[in-house]
Amino acid sequence: MTTPTPYNPETKFNRGAWLTLAFVIFVLVYNIATLAYRFTLPTDGWLVNEATEVGFNYTENLMGAPSGLQPGDNVIAVEGIRADDWPYFPPSLQQAWQVGATLDYTVIRDGQEMQVPVTLTHWQFEKWLRDTLSDPDELMGLLTGYFLLTLAFFVYLRRPGNPTTGAFLLLIALLVDLTSFPIGWPEYIDPLANILVVRWQAILLPIVMPFVLIRFALVFPHPKPVLQRLPWLAFLPLAIGLLISVFSPYSGLGWFWLLFSLVLTVAILIHNAITMRDAVSRAQILWGLGGIIFGFGLLALLLFANTFEWIEFNENFTNLVAAIALMGMGICLAIAITRYRLFDIEVIIRRTLVYAALTATLALVFFGAVTLLQSLFVAVSGQRSAVATVISTLVIAALFNPLRRRIQSDIDRRFFRRKYNAEKVVEAFSASLREEVDLDDLQAQIVAVVEETLQPESLSLWLREKR
Predict the structure, then answer these.
(1) Which residues of the chain have pLDDT under 50?
(2) How far is residue 190's CA from residue 186's CA, in Å, rounded to a whole number?
(3) Distance CA 279, CA 274 (A)
């Protein structure tokens, strides 16, 4: 006779789970469709960086075809139509924007305004794919995006009924760029491309992204009580974003709303960490915070290293570190949501703190000992000696275990008080076993120690009778 599997609503698809999956699939298919359409558009073939207020800054010729443009050109007009006329380019420019046509570009180069003739062509899929795969930056971005998306789908399919997995999948699907395709004049001039790409992003960011961010904070690690009482509260950010997009689409208010939603998301997560006190929730929050601290800490360390020239700046290395940071955050959030080996986080944090403090202490002792001993050797013999390094190494080897035990004890006492107290109780019980002979008193002590250290919901002690 087989025992029936207990019903778990988190592993079943409900209406909300199906709607989330349908929207994510729509976003992915939409990205692929717009990518395919953009290959049909006329283009000058340059990578564009919208970094100026009066035009488009051109950085790289992706087509490789001869062009009068140069890297660093700031294109401010085409056929006399200025870039700051967006989004209302006239039909005359749309009609002139054809494959094979040669158009007059007005560019600012080295502070001088000049006219440059540019012949339009098509994007080539083979060229785009070859450039993407051969460019370490683009390839790393695509691999990171596909990894995070695969991870989010895995988490979602394991627990589709959990609202946190749906919010996580939506967040990754909106953040990940799976196309690696530049946006430039074609997407602004062609009416359909303008709607599919430019205005879609204008809708996506101020409307959908704040909604997804705030919803994730409201349901992680489990839905807040206020959301259970007022389910419509999760859709309030969506309504605000819609109002901004309808009444003030190009005012910049949407970006302020997105920034405010980021701040609000962090505030809600901090409130969750303070108010959710059960062991499972706290472990989930620790995993989430651990991933965020790891990711942003790694990026901050990279920023400091580049700023103070601790390492030589390398764009490929920088992108690799950024990819590791993003993947680390995604993995930690996935562990927190699925609750896989959830309580290992305390072991990881504890050992990280211990060995980080131990490494820093030993490094200070080593360099201090080397400096002091070298000074003594110079004072006595007038020259430096390798013996100082040998002696310092032996000192480090002798101090390793005592320092590790002392640092671990200090960290447990300060940050893991419950574990520290439990160890003290077990030590006291072990000492009393050598003197206790009364069976009833011993039973009472065993029960007390188990309750003190493990804190079970119920406890019973069974003694086998002698035969």
Answers:
(1) 1-2, 51
(2) 6
(3) 13
